[in-house]
Amino acid sequence: MMITIPAFSGLRSAAPMALLMVHFGTSYDETRTLTIDAVNALARATFPEMEVREAWTSRMIVKKLKGRGIEKPLPVEALMRLRADGYTRVLVQPTTLLEGAEMASLRSDVASLAPFFEDIRIGEPLLYSVDDCRKVAEILMQRHGDKADAKKHAHVVFVGHGTYTPATATYSQMEHLFQHLGGPLFHVATIEGYPTLKTLLADLKAAKARKVTLVPMLLVAGDHATNDISGEWKETLEAAGLEVEVLMEGLGQVPEIQALYLDHARNAQDK
Fold first, then answer.
1. I want to staple 25 with a disulfide (CB 3.0 to 4.6 A). Which of 8, 61, 121, 252 is the partner?
2. Active site residue 161
């Protein structure tokens, strides 16, 4: 059904602000509950004065869930509904990791509808600034640092999605931060970007690693964690003679990471 957005008069008001949480999405119900739903719940608890709604950016996942009777709006649809419901002030907070292709698409969507709103603003992705990267590295080191053991030649690898945009450099920055904080037993690699599985294998071989713990650096431990990390990556590393453990935990399950997303929303609200 087409939703018509009333024209905005241009007059500022004291109308309440709505918060739109924007996620890529997942077709895995269990990890959705532990991550996306948990972040949404924290958003409602953190901003009780706001109307909190969600949108998903993956058209493929939205279509797949619709076939199962689960409706998830795309960002433009969610914003149109908010405006039709009378909200002229909206804070959009994505749960993306990087200022990459997903953020560019979301910023474009928001810009296209900006004339219909009195105030619409976007919070930053998780790894936006160097300080953001440092905080995330410290959180993950605290959570998974015990998996690294020099005497046992045990290494930890944080596996991200990757991107074709220049934002892929963020992953190399994260690896530098992990190694600065915890030493050479920590690595970052990506499924579709750089560093790659090939460069990771070379590093592990040079370090004479014997055991590797793979940790998804993804919001949800869904399709990529199941099929790529627990599948191809684990098999490839085992074929190279390594003992491999996979921790099936998305970043969205980590309370401190959830809080960082809401800190970004608060920062955008205060601008």
1. 61
2. yes
pLDDT band of 14, cuts 50, 70, 90: low
Q: Which of 23, 144, 155, 161 is catalytic?
A: 161
Residues 87 and 167 in one domain: no
Residue 173 in domain:
yes
Residues 138 and 245 in one domain: yes
pLDDT in tens, 67-78: 999 999 999 999
Query: Is 146 within a domain?
Result: yes
Mean pLDDT taken over the chain = 93
DSSP secondary structure of 150-168: TTTTEEEEEEE---SSGGG
| Domain that residue 43 falls in | 17-127+254-270
In whole angstroms, what is the distance from residue 57 CA to residue 49 CA?
Answer: 25
Let me know whether 183 and 135 are in one domain.
yes
Separation between Cα atoms, residue 38 and residue 43, nearest integer Å: 9
Return d(Cα 32, Cα 50) in angstroms, integer: 23
Q: Give tens-digit pLDDT for 81-138.
A: 999 999 999 999 999 999 999 999 999 999 999 999 999 999 999 999 999 999 999 9
